[in-house]
Design brief:
This protein has 5 helices and 6 strands; from the N terminus they run ααααββββββα. The protein has 162 residues and is an alpha+beta fold. It has one domain. The chain has a 6-stranded antiparallel sheet with strand order 1-2-3-4-6-5. The N terminus is likely disordered.
Length: 162
């Protein structure tokens, strides 16, 4: 009887370990499109970095925020802070850029666009480079003039580093 009890406890412990490992794997970015797929799940209010959803997104995207994000300096996009994330850190490129203003994600650049078009307005980033697949997406709730400014800021920045 005691042997059977230990077997049941052992099976339960293994099952719990598998569930924990599965949950951890679900939290791990799964590919280059991960950032855009995750941001697609967020509402306009979730994009505020102090919201639980906004904080959770940034914690997954940039666990060490100082390495992924910085305040713009010369030739940098016009945001309070911008962040760069790449699924493969060995590459010199990025999979998603984030523009943060007033502690809120307000603009992104990626090769794919978020699915929730009620939150984002997207357009081609580098209009003078036909082969570029980059898209700039700005929050729909921002004024059109500021969205245009953010798009131009990203374009100037990306052209300066290419």
């Amino acid at each position: 009887m005691l042997g059977r009890a230990f077997h049941i406890v052992r099976v339960a412990a293994i099952a719990a370990g598998v569930m924990v490992a599965g949950a951890a794997a679900a939290e791990t970015p799964a590919g280059p499109e991960w950032g855009v797929k995750e941001i697609s799940k967020l509402s306009d209010t979730d994009l505020v970095l102090t919201s639980s959803a906004g904080k959770a997104f940034m914690d997954k995207l940039a666990p060490v925020r100082d390495k992924a994000c910085s305040a713009p300096s010369e030739n940098r996009p016009d945001f309070d802070e911008y962040c760069s994330w790449a699924f493969n850190n060995d590459e010199a490129d990025f999979d998603i850029l984030l523009g943060i203003k007033d502690n809120k994600i307000v603009s992104i650049v990626a090769s794919t666009t978020p699915e929730n078009s009620d939150v984002w307005v997207c357009e081609k980033t580098q209009k003078g480079i036909p082969e570029s697949d980059l898209q700039t997406c700005n929050i729909r709730s921002a004024d059109e003039k500021i969205r245009t400014h953010w798009s131009e800021s990203w374009e100037v920045f990306l052209n300066s580093i290419n």
